[in-house]
Amino acid sequence: MAERKVRVRFAPSPTGALHIGGVRTALYNYLFAKKHGGDLLLRIEDTDSQRFVPGAEEYIIESFNWLGIKFDEGVGIGGDHAPYRQSERKDIYKKYVDQLLADGLAYIAFDTPEELEAKRAAIPNFQYDARTRMQGVNSLTLSAEEVQKRIDNGDKYVVRIKIEPNEDVEVHDLIRGKVVINSNILDDKVLYKAADQLPTYHLANIVDDHLMEISHVIRGEEWLPSAPLHVLLYRYLGWADTMPQFAHLPLLLKPEGNGKLSKRDGDRLGFPVFPLQWKDPKTGDVSSGYRESGYLPEAVVNFLALLGWNPGIDREIFSMQELIDLFSLDRVSKSGARFDYEKGKWFNHEYMISKSDDEVAEMFMPTLKEKGIECPFDTVKYIVSLVKSRVNFANELWDQTSFFFEAPTAYDEKSVKKRWKENSPEMMRQLIEVLKGIDDFSAENAEKVVMDWIAKNEYNTGLVMNSFRLTVVGEAKGPHMFDITAIIGKDETIARVERALETLK
User: Fold this and answer.
1) Is residue 268 part of a domain?
2) CA 60 – CA 19 distance, rounded (Å)
3) SS3 321
4) Is residue 139 very low, low, confident or very high in pLDDT (cuts 50, 70, 90)?
């Protein structure tokens, strides 16, 4: 038998914003597919019409476009296995529901929600299974005539899988090894709801994965308890020989405490848990996104890739191609990965530093435009070259550079208290005269002249320069002083020192 082509899928539900954990799952699928020369599909699992949220599908697609995770076929792309929305595949699923019923591997159940609730109240740890199904209102307890009569009358019903008791079901997981679960703990899960003529996730994903020739199912750990049911479905449908291999990824854990990462953690600690900003169409609530928070897509990808996977080499910065080349499921952790959002900032910082000055300047230009500041691009480029190592995000550039474009209107109190001494005014008055005498105001020449003056007068260099910075910048921050003065020019430098002398008494 020829080796099977690697085909994997990411199959989100359009129920709201895409969680960053889902993004990591998609990324691992992408890396695995590309490593093995395979295909990645995007399938939208929208069988739960009650939870459908308008705009969610578009949001998902836009998120992956921003991150550079490219799908080979699926929603918005097309392919030989269309349609890729489960809501458009009703007729396909019904065929297999009928097959399971005909083979006696599933049954029709008419139990109302009220009847089921009464059973849960009466029987501790109740579940619909081999021990209890004969107490239910279903095709196993009713005659064929009664079942048909109820269907003809429009009675609501579901189709449940019929699981045989006390069978050890083996799941071979590429990360966790062999997992054995006894069928006694499995309930007869609902596979199909007649009310909306749609399957549940359990049946739909099995049918779709089979028909779309999926070779590997790489998904979150939360689906591991469902894996035995899925193995049984492959067997019941006669597809055991082509069943995909499973790999269940570790959870993303809270930055602190126990449990999986949630949106509340992000809200509480001030970091995004969604790739893009999301506005809930029902409540109007806005949740932050990595893109809008100033993260670079390649930094997010790099950060996520290392949450639960070890590349096996002693470095942390990788291009997408390097991640593809190094990726393997056998280096994925079995235990959960703690979400270190501060590490995420570090990754973005590293990528900001690695960007060319041209790229960072381009990122900064919209801010300057917004503030009504016109400045030659080459000057902006030079300014960002001086400060980009000081920022984590492009939206921090203004705070680090505002004094290049605008004179300070106030002076930081802490800096004044610490840097502005009794003799500072007199030294600044003398410095103004020194600056007036400099014809070549380049950083190199101005620094030499000023330093020679300080040395000649035996002044304290730190005191002079700290006072000088305070007058020009307004606080104790910024790059090399003479790089600043070279950019703002001689007249502006002197004017700022004079203004400070009038303000700081």
Assistant:
1) no
2) 10
3) helix
4) very high
Query: Of 420, 36, 148, which is closest to residue 28 (Cα–Cα)?
Result: 36
- Domain harbouring 459, CATH code: 1.10.10.350
pLDDT tens digit string along 184-220? 999 999 999 999 888 999 999 999 999 999 999 999 9
394 near 352, Cβ under 8 Å?
A: yes
Phi, psi of 443 (to 5 degrees): -55, -45
How confident is the prediction for the chain on average, in pLDDT?
A: 96
DSSP 8-state code for residue 437 = T
Those residues whose C-beta lies under 8 Å from the C-beta of residue 11, and which sit 6 or more positions away, are: 42, 43, 44, 45, 205, 208
Tell me the CA end-to-end span of the chain in Å, nearest whole number: 89
260 is catalytic: no
Domain containing 173 equals: 89-249
Q: What is the pLDDT of residues 429-453, one digit of tens each?
A: 999 999 999 999 999 999 999 999 9
| pLDDT tops 70 at residue 420 | yes
**Listed residues 189, 223, 249: the one ending a domain:** 249
Whether the per-residue pLDDT at 2 is higher than 60: the answer is no
Alpha-carbon gap, residue 308 to 21, rounded angstroms: 11
Q: Answer yes or no: is 366 within a domain.
A: no
Q: Where are the alpha helices (DSSP H) in 153-296?
A: 201-211, 227-236, 263-269
SS3 478: coil
**Which pLDDT belongs to residue 47?**
83
Report d(CA 180, CA 196) in Å as an integer.
34
Domain end, chosen from 249, 283, 314, is at: 249
Q: Which residue has the tokens 């291999």?
A: 245
**At 370, which amino acid appears?**
E
Sign of CA dihedral 223, 227, 228, 230: positive
Let me know: does 37 contact 56? Beta carbons within 8 Å.
Answer: no
The one catalytic residue in 260, 263, 355, 448 is 263
CB 204 within 8 A of CB 86: yes
Cα–Cα distance for residue pair 424/505, rounded to 1 Å: 10
Provide the residue count of the chain: 505
Scanning the structure block, which residue is given the tokens 């992408």? Answer: 30
